[in-house]
Amino acid sequence: MNPEPFLQLDRIIHEKGRLAIMSALAASPELSFTELRDTLEMTDGNLNTHIRILQEGGFISVAKSYQNNRSLTTCSLTKAGRKAFTDYINLLEQIVRQHKA
Question: Is the pTM of this model over 0.85?
Answer without folding.
Answer: yes
